[in-house]
Amino acid sequence: MSSQPTTFNLEYILSVGLALTGVYYIQSNYPNTMPFIKFFVIPFLIAFIALTIFNGLLKNLNNIGQKAFNFIENKSLNSIESSNYMQVFPPIMAVFVIFMIVLYNLKFIS
């Protein structure tokens, strides 16, 4: 038995998305279907078929997802770091809290 934890990658995300889309379609078009079939059998079947297709036909799907994730993470962290957000946030938060307290107190005065 391997000791590596399960990593949720692009294949899993897409298969769960397809399964939830299938459940939504069945719920909206066939609302009288048995709940066990509608919420358990069909989503697992759709997810299994999607994972089988993704593993068989699209072998580089996880690499593409990892590259996209790394790109988005790098861009967002660089944007936050270059904007000096951490130096600006505390005074803005203090003003916001004071503003909310004043609004809350004025509501009960009148």
Protein model, in words:
The chain is an all-alpha fold. It has helices spanning 10-29, 35-57, 61-82, 85-109. It has a domain at 1-59. Helices cover 82% and strands 0% of the residues. The longest helix has 25 residues, at 85-109. The termini are far apart.
How is the secondary structure organized here?
Blueprint lengths: L9 H20 L5 H23 L3 H22 L2 H25 L1
Helix pairs in contact: 1-2
Q: Short summary of the structure?
A:
This protein has helices at 10-29, 35-57, 61-82, 85-109. The protein is mainly α and 110 residues long. The longest helix is centred in the C-terminal third of the chain and has 25 residues, at 85-109.
Please count the beta strands (DSSP E, at least 2 residues each): 0
The whole-number mean of residue pLDDT values reads 82
Counting helices, strands and paired strands, the structural category is mainly alpha
Beta-strand content estimate: under 5%
Largest sheet: none
H/E element string?
A: HHHH
State Rg: 24 Å
Count the DSSP helices. 4
Poorly predicted runs: none
Q: Describe the oligomeric state of these chains in a short phrase.
A: single chain
Helix content: over 70%
**Coarse shape:** flat
Distance between the termini: 68 Å
